[in-house]
């Protein structure tokens, strides 16, 4: 954690110690009621409301579209109306979802805003309203002004009014230092969130290290990443056994690999994970070729064979699926069984009961027939 973050945290704790944490948290909740107001705005601007409610008639808020022959007149190179004095008036289309609020006060807009005098009149009216209402324009009331009677909207309006009353009555509302205290409280909340994220990452790193220590057959970094990124979670135990076979060294097949759909996606996920690990190592200034790492780490030559054997195919059937020698297939299957037991132990160490059962089931599905006979000479 950076020193500036620690400094902010210490100063924030010293300052917040002057006030009860509960009161400051309550005040923070009152101030942060904008989410309720956004729900009300989203209801007000619904087409069935603003199209039929006289408060939101389009012609009262924006001028009618100008004919094509008149477009561009009175505008500068950027498409804005020319400025008169210090202020200028421009017509800018704004999507309704971007509105932050609506006022109950309306301004009569001339039907044609192209003449400078018409625009200046509207500008003066807006400035006059700002002087009359220095605390802000009165908001449009969905119930009183628009006549909306839906229980959900009425309840939202009631909640906003209650929150505003509680906010004004809170002792911190009139305090000269309330904004500063609120700022420190928000900063402290952000720091606490960062701390929790760092702790979560530390726990995950510790679990990954614990799992990696129990794996010595395959690439422990890549295998551990698959355990924690959810790749194994989406597979059944037959697919898990087939995917795990990619980590076992074996003879290279001269035939082109054609995988069934249930194996192609897991293999792609495995290759993507290996590529990410290699790129991270390269970014850390390690001398590594990404594609060579992926090719040397992942050996998918017997994925289909192991998958079919795990699902109950006979030895005669699986040896016809590849040009790799029978003895190499048997050696890989036995080493794969050991590897799956290591994965089961790693899953048990990090508390992944579902993965533990899945690895155990994958191992059990392999141990049958001639591949696991005590002696091939019997």
From TrEMBL:
<dbReference type="GO" id="GO:0004386">
    <property type="term" value="F:helicase activity"/>
</dbReference>
<dbReference type="GO" id="GO:0005634">
    <property type="term" value="C:nucleus"/>
</dbReference>
<keyword id="KW-0347">Helicase</keyword>
<keyword id="KW-0067">ATP-binding</keyword>
<dbReference type="GO" id="GO:0016787">
    <property type="term" value="F:hydrolase activity"/>
</dbReference>
<dbReference type="Pfam" id="PF08148">
    <property type="entry name" value="DSHCT"/>
</dbReference>
<dbReference type="InterPro" id="IPR012961">
    <property type="entry name" value="Ski2/MTR4_C"/>
</dbReference>
<feature type="domain" description="ATP-dependent RNA helicase Ski2/MTR4 C-terminal">
    <location>
        <begin position="200"/>
        <end position="378"/>
    </location>
</feature>
<keyword id="KW-0378">Hydrolase</keyword>
<protein>
    <submittedName>
        <fullName>Protein HUA ENHANCER 2</fullName>
    </submittedName>
</protein>
<dbReference type="GO" id="GO:0005524">
    <property type="term" value="F:ATP binding"/>
</dbReference>
<dbReference type="InterPro" id="IPR025696">
    <property type="entry name" value="Beta-barrel_MTR4"/>
</dbReference>
<dbReference type="InterPro" id="IPR050699">
    <property type="entry name" value="RNA-DNA_Helicase"/>
</dbReference>
<dbReference type="Pfam" id="PF13234">
    <property type="entry name" value="MTR4_beta-barrel"/>
</dbReference>
<keyword id="KW-0547">Nucleotide-binding</keyword>
<dbReference type="GO" id="GO:0000460">
    <property type="term" value="P:maturation of 5.8S rRNA"/>
</dbReference>
């Amino acid at each position: 954690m950076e020193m500036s973050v620690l400094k902010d945290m210490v100063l924030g704790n010293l300052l917040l110690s002057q006030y009860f944490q509960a009161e400051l948290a309550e005040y923070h909740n009152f101030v942060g009621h904008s989410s309720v107001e956004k729900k009300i705005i989203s209801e007000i601007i619904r087409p069935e409301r603003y199209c039929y409610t006289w408060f939101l008639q389009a012609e009262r808020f924006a001028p009618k579209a100008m004919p094509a022959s008149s477009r561009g007149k009175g505008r500068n190179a950027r498409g804005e109306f020319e400025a008169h004095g210090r202020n200028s008036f421009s017509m800018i289309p704004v999507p309704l979802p971007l509105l932050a609020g609506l006022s109950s006060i309306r301004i009569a807009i001339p039907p044609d805003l192209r003449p400078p005098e018409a625009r200046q009149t509207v500008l003066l009216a807006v400035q006059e309203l700002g002087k009359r209402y220095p605390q802000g324009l009165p908001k449009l009331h969905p119930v009183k002004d628009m006549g909306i009677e839906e229980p959900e909207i009425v309840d939202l309006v009631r909640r906003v009014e209650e929150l505003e009353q509680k906010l004004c009555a809170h002792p911190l509302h009139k305090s000269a230092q309330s904004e500063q205290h609120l700022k420190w409280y928000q900063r402290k909340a952000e720091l606490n969130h960062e701390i929790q994220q760092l702790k979560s990452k530390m726990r995950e790193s510790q679990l990954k290290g614990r799992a990696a220590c129990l794996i010595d057959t395959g690439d422990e970094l890549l295998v551990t990443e698959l355990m924690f990124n959810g790749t194994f979670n989406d597979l059944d135990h037959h697919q898990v056994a087939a995917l795990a076979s990619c980590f076992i060294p074996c003879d290279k097949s001269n035939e082109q690999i054609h995988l069934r759909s249930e194996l192609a996606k897991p293999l792609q996920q495995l290759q993507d994970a290996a590529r990410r690990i290699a790129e991270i190592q390269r970014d850390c200034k390690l001398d590594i070729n990404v594609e060579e790492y992926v090719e040397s780490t992942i050996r998918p030559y017997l994925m289909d064979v192991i998958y079919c054997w795990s699902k109950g195919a006979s030895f005669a059937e699986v040896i016809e699926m590849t040009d790799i020698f029978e003895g190499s297939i048997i050696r890989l299957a036995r080493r794969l069984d050991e590897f799956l037991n290591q994965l089961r132990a790693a899953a048990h160490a990090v508390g992944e009961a579902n993965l533990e059962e899945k690895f155990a089931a994958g191992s059990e599905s392999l141990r049958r027939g001639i591949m696991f006979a005590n002696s091939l000479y019997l």
